[in-house]
Design goal:
about 290 residues, alpha/beta, Rossmann fold, six-stranded parallel sheet, two-stranded parallel ribbon, 12 strands, about 15% strand, disordered C terminus, binds NADP nicotinamide-adenine-dinucleotide phosphate
Length: about 290
């Protein structure tokens, strides 16, 4: 599915989400449908849309749709499975039938976090909750139905809007004048527009199968909070370290879900370091970037 022309050859599902919005910015002229316009798990709508897309010369479907509410998935496992397994399976089956390429996105949460180094694509997954289990099921469903699909696992995504960790940190700082952040959870913070760019890079290299793709480097929640505040010019706000166990949750989150992205790098695709992603997000929100103090 090699392609280098942005435009109507692309169709984005889940267009209102963070990645969906970033993909639309990257692929001007791409067709895009929000959840309201297209439920990917709905057989009739999906068939009709993809048939029309293929007939119009469409080439690649980008699936940015997912149930991403990790806690709520515990109460709604059937709905999470519908969006994260049944929908992606249907997309892959239809793409296989119609000769379309498919880009699907998965998560670092497929790992249990017991390793203390970044995870590679070869490491065995061991999901800890409903969201993670459904995302792992989605990966398998997609690659079973369409082995040529690109499936990219990413981590700790933030992008347009404030409904993500850096956004919540800034809100907390402005509201409370102080911040608490977990020091014993590690991931690879990823700016959605950088992820979109990396996915396009992999598509342009005709990458197929499973890839890890995340912001370069590993960070704790605490480090991410501190960097966000400093880059936003709020470095004087006190940040209190705490343990993940001090936030009651029914979902166990992996203590370490940083991703080793060497496989993508071997094709020449690497995302910028995660701090650059934070700075880019702040700029996009009109918050002046300041030099980080050493
Ligand atoms: N956010 C993270 O930290 C993170 C980390 C690792 C991996 N990922 C993965 O990255 C991908 C992109 O996530 P994101 O961060 O952009 O999530 P997001 O902002 O929550 O966007 C997901 C979008 O999918 C839509 N959606 C849900 N169910 C759907 C369905 N059945 N049909 C069509 N659309 C549906 C949602 O609409 P509604 O809001 O209306 O339901 C939402 O607009 C997902 O595969 C996610 O699992 C995310």
């Amino acid at each position: 599915m090699t392609i280098d022309t942005p435009g109507r050859l692309h169709l984005v599902a889940g267009a209102a989400g963070m990645l969906g919005r970033a993909l639309q910015d990257l692929l001007p002229g791409a067709l895009a449908r929000t959840h309201q316009e297209w439920d990917i798990a709905h057989l009739g709508t999906t068939r009709r849309l993809l048939e029309d897309f293929a007939r119009a010369g469409g080439c690649i479907l980008w699936n940015a749709a997912a149930w991403t509410a990790v806690e709520a998935a515990e109460d709604h496992p059937d709905q999470a499975a519908r969006a994260n397994i049944e929908g992606p399976r249907l997309l892959a089956e239809e793409c296989a039938r119609l000769g379309l390429g498919l880009v699907h996105v998965s998560t670092d949460f497929v790992f249990d976090g017991t390793r203390d180094v970044p995870y590679t694509e070869q490491d065995p997954p061991h999901p800890l909750g409903v969201y993670a289990r459904t995302k792992l099921g989605g990966e398998k469903a997609v690659l079973d139905a369409l082995p040529s699909a690109l499936v990219a696992r990413t981590s700790w995504v933030f992008g347009a809007g404030w409904r993500h960790f850096p956004g919540r940190i800034l809100e907390m700082a402005r509201r409370d004048g102080r911040v608490r952040a977990v020091e014993d959870e590690f991931g690879s913070p990823t700016y959605a527009p950088h992820l979109a760019q990396g996915l396009l890079g992999l598509v342009q290299r005709n990458a197929q199968g499973l890839f890890h793709l995340a912001g370069q480097g590993r960070a704790s929640r605490l480090e991410l909070a501190r960097a966000t505040l400093t880059l936003a010019g709020l470095g004087s706000i006190p940040v209190e370290p705490c343990l993940a166990s001090s936030f009651p949750s029914r979902v166990r989150r992996p203590a370490n879900s940083a991703l080793d992205c060497a496989r993508a790098a071997s094709l020449g695709v690497a995302l910028p370091p995660w701090r650059e992603g934070v700075a880019a997000w702040l700029r996009s929100e009109g918050i002046p970037e300041l030099e980080e103090t050493p």
